[in-house]
Amino acid sequence: AAENRFYITFKRRLPVPAPAPGNGITVFPNPVRNGKMNVQMNGMEQGLYTARLLSSNGQAMQQSKIAHTGKSNTTLINVGKTVAAGMYQLEIISPKNVVSTINVVIE
Questions:
Q1: Is the model's pTM score more than 0.90?
Q2: Are the beta carbons of 45 and 82 closer than 8 angstroms?
Q3: Which of 3, 30, 36, 40 could crosslink 26 through cysteines, CB 3.0-4.6 Å?
Q4: How crowded is residue 51: how many other Cβ atoms within 10 Å of its Cβ?
Q5: How far apart are CA 14 and CA 24, in angstroms?
Q6: Are 61 and 53 in contact (CB under 8 A)?
């Protein structure tokens, strides 16, 4: 009888520190814990952005506004306890209706 030559090891991921500033949008921590996520925006156009949390079937679970100063800033979004654990997409819509999508895991 042949022995199994392969095995799988599962490890819990450690918390990810805040990312280094670069142009674009970053969400941390990801996975989101305690119902709170930070949206960091760097080098993006100043204005009022819309953040929408979408379920896997495209249903909008939550929506909020982000007033971006045009520099580097971080906004706390409180997801709360009403959103079930799982995979979601965070859509960030710019003042010119450009959509950026970020995959987010909520624990």
A1: no
A2: no
A3: 40
A4: 21
A5: 24
A6: yes
